[in-house]
Amino acid sequence: MLARDVLRQLAAAGVPAVGLERTALDVTDAGSVRALLQERRPAVVVNCAAWTAVDDAEAQPGAALAVNGTGARRVAEECAATGAVLIQVSTDYVFAGDAGQPYPEDAPTAPRSVYGLTKLAGERGVLETLPDAGYVVRTGWLYGANGPSFVRSMIRLERTRDTLDVVDDQRGQPTWTRDLADRLVALGRGALDGTAPPGVYHGTSTGETTWFEYARRIFTLLGADPERIRPTSTDVFPRPAPRPAYSVLSHGRWRTAGIESIRPWQEALAEALPEVRQAAIGDPAGGADSPSPSSA
């Protein structure tokens, strides 16, 4: 979902880039990572490879760690060997999710799920291995045209359900992958020209909402009655992995790089929805495998 928009943004900017699917590069295979980076010697690597099945990670912690933790460190080690900058995509799940105000980039981490723990291991691997060329960009509540997401699920369910129950006690920042990709590209440029300090950045939209309010906004933009969305609570939808109740991130670090933070989520959603809807209509699953915690 994210990687394809990163490649799209790079192509639009005329920047040569290679995108590799899992079959072409397995980050858990040290030999493959080493051979690829030694051969191609990229200036910047954007690591979008991740185990994102949050609930499955609870039952398969070793497999999740191999990708999110060990795999990220391995990529960082090879970037160090070849002199490449590494941008590592991470998650809001590294926080406990019990705050009352947006988490700054230097807030203490305290993940409550295996997924969050493995992503935090990846962050540490990158920052420890590449203190001068490692960048971690935390994000959350992603949606886009490519791949399952909450938005695609709502588009599908609007066509098939009379009413939907959506949780109203989790807060976060819906973020369009196109907007995040734009910031990742800008960060890569800043890293190469020396204007973007290495370290942690938060790549989420401005503002905040709940899944319930988010779903109602999607329905409104689709021309559907938002009253068909009914509020409920997280405990109605028990999951193996706990969901953060508060996943709102602050964005002050972008100023140090001379890059604007991402625009308000409402503005981005209005622009993105026609493209996401078209993609969802063309996919019979319509995002049925979305990791969202919200509807039934």
Description:
The chain is of the alpha/beta class. It has one domain: Rossmann fold (3-Layer(aba) Sandwich). Helices cover 43% and strands 12% of the residues. It has helices at residues 2-12, 30-40, 54-59, 61-82, 114-129, 150-160, 177-193, 211-222, 253-256, 265-281; strands spanning 44-47, 85-91, 134-139, 142-143, 164-167, 171-172, 175-176, 199-202, 209-210, 229-232. The strands form four sheets. The protein has a four-stranded parallel beta sheet with strand order 1-2-3-8, with helices on both faces. It has a two-stranded parallel sheet with strand order 4-7. α5 (114-129) links the parallel β2 (85-91) and β3. α4 (61-82) runs parallel beside α5 and α6 (150-160) packs across α8 (211-222). The two termini are 24 Å apart.
User: Looking across the biggest beta sheet, what order are the strands in?
Assistant: 1-2-3-8
Q: Strand portion, in percent?
A: 5-15%
State the CATH topology.
Rossmann fold
Stretches with pLDDT under 50, minimum 5 residues: 286-296
SSE string: HHEHHEHEEHEEEHEEHEHH
The CATH homologous superfamily corresponds to: NAD(P)-binding Rossmann-like Domain
Tally of alpha and pi helices: 10
Number of domains: 1
What structural category arises from helix and sheet content? alpha/beta
CATH architecture: 3-Layer(aba) Sandwich
